[in-house]
Amino acid sequence: MSGNEKAKAKMEQARGKAKEAAGRAVGNERLTAEGRTEQTKGDARQAKEKAKDTFRH
Q1: Of 18, 40, 49, 53, whose CB is crowded by the most CB atoms within 10 A?
Q2: What own/partner pairs with CB < 8 Å and gap ≥ 24 does 16-25 have?
Q3: CA dist., res. 25 & res. 6, Å (int)
Q4: With 60 as the cut, is the pLDDT of residue 22 above it?
Q5: Using CA atoms, how far apart are residues 30 and 23, in angstroms rounded to an integer?
Q6: Is the per-residue pLDDT at 53 higher than 90?
Q7: Residues 6+ apart with CB under 8 A from 16
Q8: Cβ atoms within 10 A of the Cβ of 11, count?
Q9: Which helix (H) or strand (E) holds 40?
């Protein structure tokens, strides 16, 4: 997995978790949904990079 893409994936996941937690804490559904979306984007980026690595080796 490319280091840069791996870092982006982890950052998106962490930022998403923080947003989701903050949204739940204050009762903001929109912020909670944004957090889930960011986590999903991070998961997808990570899966894509893992697939690339699998086919390279």
Answers
A1: 49
A2: 16/40, 16/41, 16/42
A3: 29
A4: yes
A5: 7
A6: no
A7: 34, 35, 36, 37, 38, 39, 40, 41, 42
A8: 13
A9: helix 29-56
